[in-house]
Amino acid sequence: MAPTQTLSVRLTAETRDVLTKAAHSHDTAGASALARDILEEWVRRVRLLETREGMRKAVSFLLEHPDWGDDPAGFFPQVNDFK
What we know:
Blueprint: H1 13-26, H2 31-64, H3 72-75, H4 79-82
Helix pairs in contact: 1-2
């Protein structure tokens, strides 16, 4: 298991209320677990977008330099997604 750290953030009363109400249907650990899950999902999506952007740049570079003889699809099967 990866090490974790505690992050303390200020919430508006409205945000806290919504988290508390939503936590009942989400997890028995409560509002803080729901907030953590939301934040961790956001981080996962940001990382995915960063990876996708990196792949797009690499494919673009390879397509702009056909003299390299490398087929971008050999590295990135999703090459057509980036054209």
